[in-house]
């Protein structure tokens, strides 16, 4: 079902994906605009997906493309485009403390590589292949003999739900202000800190009846309108 | 058997982690901070998958299962992180992380 790559071909593919991942990672480090950095990061993620596939983990490889390169990076690119204020080039890439900050990663990388060179790691013949069948058997077995991964799965679902709700509450423009407007039109022209009741209250503090009154305006729509009015 | 040396996988993961750490620590644009964290999480995933080939049985399965949870947590982190970025940029009108340093004073 999953034929092994022969020796030389597996090494060639590994080298290819490793070089692409490292080059794209370096591109992320030196990229000027966030969009270029995001595209470099997508390159890293796609080549890592190829690495997972040749490392006998096809399910993780599929999930890497679907969730990381698909969902997370789409969200990131979308937010970069919404918040693009034309002054991204004004933010300098590095400053003087960045040189100091580069010492730590170099030190960490050198230390780990030097340690790995001394550790003899060998492939185990009994290693399982991370197919969907094996992973789902391990994750969704419920009962006294189960390894308990289904609990982690439930907690992960709760975590994602909490993140969803908190992201909406954080990014929404102050929800009570819409209720105060008599005709219900959002006050897009006003800067957030120009509103007297807003600055001390903060956007994170909203109550549930405010949320109901706010209607169905989405986060991204409000953000896009906000940015476009400010650019004028 | 597969010819890929597990040491090489771990070295690649370490290099990618160091690159992510460098991006997160040295860049000033707030988006690059988030992307550096994502790169570090990806490197750890690669390390897990690489180690899953060096153990037998259930120990091997852990290497395939942990990346699933890491990906879920990374999705939650990106979601909340971007919401905070939207929030901050709306108040400060700047993507420079030095503009958000007032908590230090």
Could you walk me through the main structural features you see in this protein, from its secondary elements to its overall organization?
The complex is a heterodimer of chains A (232) and B (105). Chain A is mostly helical. Among the domains of chain A are: 7-88, NADH-ubiquinone/plastoquinone oxidoreductase chain 6, subunit NuoJ (Four Helix Bundle (Hemerythrin (Met), subunit A), Up-down Bundle); 148-180 and 199-231, no CATH class. Helix content of chain A is 66%, strand content 0%. Chain A contains eleven helices and no strands. Chain A has helices at residues 7-30, 34-54, 58-83, 96-101, 103-118, 132-139, 149-171, 175-180, 196-199, 208-213, 219-231. Mean pLDDT of chain A is 76; it is low at 184-232. Chain B starts with 5 loop residues before the first helix and ends in a 13-residue tail after the last helix. Chain B is 74% helix and 0% strand. Chain B has 105 residues and is mostly helical. The model of chain B has no long low-confidence stretch (mean pLDDT 87). Chain B is elongated. In chain B, helix 1 runs antiparallel to helix 2 and helix 2 packs antiparallel against helix 3. Chain B has three helices and no strands. The interface between A and B is large, with 101 and 78 residues.
């Amino acid at each position: 079902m999953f034929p092994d790559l022969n020796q030389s071909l597996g090494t060639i593919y590994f080298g290819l994906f490793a070089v692409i991942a490292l080059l794209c990672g370096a591109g992320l480090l030196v990229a000027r605009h966030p969009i270029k950095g995001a595209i470099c990061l997508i390159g890293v993620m796609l080549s890592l997906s190829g690495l997972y596939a040749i490392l006998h983990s096809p399910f993780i490889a599929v999930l890497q493309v679907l969730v990381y390169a698909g969902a997370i990076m789409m969200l990131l690119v979308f937010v970069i485009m919404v918040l693009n204020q034309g002054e991204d080039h004004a933010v300098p890439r590095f400053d003087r403390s960045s040189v100091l900050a580069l010492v730590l990663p170099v030190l960490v990388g050198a230390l780990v590589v030097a340690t790995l060179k001394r550790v003899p790691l060998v492939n185990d013949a009994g290693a399982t292949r991370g197919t969907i069948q094996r992973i789902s058997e391990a994750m969704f077995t419920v009962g006294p003999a189960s390894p308990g991964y289904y609990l982690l799965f439930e907690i992960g679902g709760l975590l994602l739900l909490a993140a969803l709700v908190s992201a909406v509450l954080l990014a929404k423009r102050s929800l009570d202000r819409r209720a105060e407007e008599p005709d219900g039109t959002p006050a897009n022209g006003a800067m957030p800190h120009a509103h007297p009741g807003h600055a001390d209250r903060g956007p994170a503090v909203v109550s549930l009846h405010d949320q109901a009154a706010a209607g169905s305006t989405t986060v991204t729509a409000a953000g896009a309108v906000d940015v476009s009015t400010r650019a004028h | 058997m597969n010819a890929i040396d597990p040491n090489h996988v771990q070295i690649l993961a370490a290099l990618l982690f160091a690159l992510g750490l460098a991006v997160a620590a040295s860049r000033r644009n707030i988006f690059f901070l988030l992307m550096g964290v994502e790169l570090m999480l990806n490197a750890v995933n690669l390390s897990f998958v690489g180690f899953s080939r060096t153990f037998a049985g259930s120990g091997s399965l852990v290497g395939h299962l942990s990346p699933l949870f890491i990906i879920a947590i990374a999705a939650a982190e990106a979601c909340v992180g971007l919401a905070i970025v939207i929030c901050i940029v709306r108040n400060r009108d700047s993507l420079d992380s030095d503009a958000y340093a007032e908590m230090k004073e």
